[in-house]
Write a structure and sequence with these properties.
Blueprint (H helix, E strand, L loop, with lengths): L1 E5 L7 E7 L2 E6 L5 E6 L12 E6 L5 E3 L9 E5 L5 E7 L9 E7 L8 E2 L7 E7 L5 E7 L2 E7 L6 E4 L5 E7 L6 E6 L6 E5 L6 E3 L14 E9 L2 E9 L10 E6 L16 H6 L3 E5 L9 H4 L9 H15 L4 E9 L2 H7 L1
Parallel strand pairs: 21-22, 21-23
Antiparallel strand pairs: 1-2, 3-4, 4-5, 5-6, 7-8, 8-9, 9-10, 11-12, 12-13, 13-14, 15-16, 16-17, 17-18, 19-20, 20-22
């Protein structure tokens, strides 16, 4: 069982929540009067996708199920800085774990209010979020191979995009008293570094130099490709040796990501792709139906058809890449991990 305690810098510690099973995360309202926590009530692995957000009045002990049993996995509750809303991570469709990952907001004072889906109009997966001092929420979304950064108003649902360029962002955090964000950034030229982002002006200022040795690495050529199969447009990332003797087409390895609701990112740490390219292979990393970083319809398109249309998407991508001359159609291999391993065996 877990407990939540208040430990003042001086004075006596106070237990805010009695021993409970299944607590995952929590936050305290800015006025210190309410506690929001995520729990599945049992702590059992089979209940991991049945968590919900509970709001507890710390004076009376009264509790409220924030979404009154909406369903799915609700996690990462955070109060806005004015204390008016609790925002949290949930599923766009609470019945389907691999539906689009959503950011939801519920007003604390209105016990009958329905949760607002803040990303419904954007139709992309939430990957991380942080609350800004002005009450808005900064959210990182998966968009194809890259990340998008949006500023969201919990009350109105209004969204404003911040230009961060073509990169992958994670580990987002907000300064407590200034409109400044920090995150970990990666892209096709740089390993993970900490960046500072000004929500008003956009852009990313790199604050660290953790990988100076990488500047001298021999790197793959990268090509983003698209193909169509069975009513959907699919995306892929091809990594090729910098030099191929005499225009010879290199053997092609198809590396299939897991999930299936997961995605390929255009970074130097794309699985073992760079290492394979260094040995003379070309590598294609396909996005197939069911992958994240696309619209809800794409995320759900492989439902009840695992190893079917998604496998055909991958095969169509291989045909497209070899048709472009980026790989040898007579020398092919497939590899992957987790669900990618399943599709490899399929």
């Amino acid at each position: 069982a877990w407990e939540i305690w208040l430990h003042p810098l001086s004075g006596r510690a106070e237990r805010l929540l009695p021993p409970m099973k299944g607590i995952d995360d929590f936050d305290v309202s800015p006025d210190g009067k309410r506690l929001a926590y995520a729990t599945n009530h049992t702590g059992k692995p089979e209940d991991a996708d049945r968590s919900e957000i509970i709001v507890r009045d710390l004076d009376s002990g009264a509790e409220r199920r924030l979404t009154r049993g909406r369903g799915g996995a609700e996690s990462s509750p955070r109060f806005t800085r004015d204390g008016r809303f609790v925002v949290f991570h949930g599923w766009a469709d609470p019945e389907i774990s691999f539906s689009r990952q959503e950011l939801l907001a519920v007003p604390v004072a209105d016990e009958q209010a329905e949760p607002r889906l803040l990303l419904a109009d954007v139709d992309r997966d939430l990957e991380d979020f942080a609350v800004l001092p002005d009450g808005r929420i900064a959210a990182i979304l998966a968009d194809g191979f890259d990340s998008r950064l949006l500023l969201l108003d919990a009350a109105t649902g209004r969204a404003e995009e911040v230009d961060v360029g073509r990169r992958f962002l994670g580990a987002l955090c907000a300064a407590p008293g200034a409109p400044v964000l920090a995150a970990v950034s990666e892209d096709s030229e740089h390993l993970a570094e900490v960046v500072r982002i000004g929500p008003a002006s956009g852009g990313c200022e790199t604050l660290t130099d953790l990988h100076p040795e990488s500047s001298g690495w021999r790197r793959a050529r990268r090509t983003r490709v698209r193909w169509e199969n069975e009513g959907f447009e699919h995306h892929g990332l091809v990594l090729s040796p910098p030099e191929v003797p005499g225009g010879e087409r290199p053997p092609l390895v198809t590396w299939i990501h897991g999930g299936p609701h997961w995605r390929v990112t255009d970074t130097l740490e794309d699985y073992a792709a760079e290492a394979l390219v260094a040995e003379g292979y070309a590598v294609v990393l396909p996005q197939y139906r069911g992958s994240s970083g696309h619209e809800q319809a794409y995320a759900l398109a492989s439902r009840r058809d695992l190893g079917g249309a998604d496998a055909r998407d991958v095969l169509a991508g291989i045909d497209h890449v070899t048709g472009l001359g980026l790989g040898d159609p007579e020398r092919l291999a497939a590899a992957g991990a987790s669900y990618g391993g399943y599709l490899t065996n399929w």
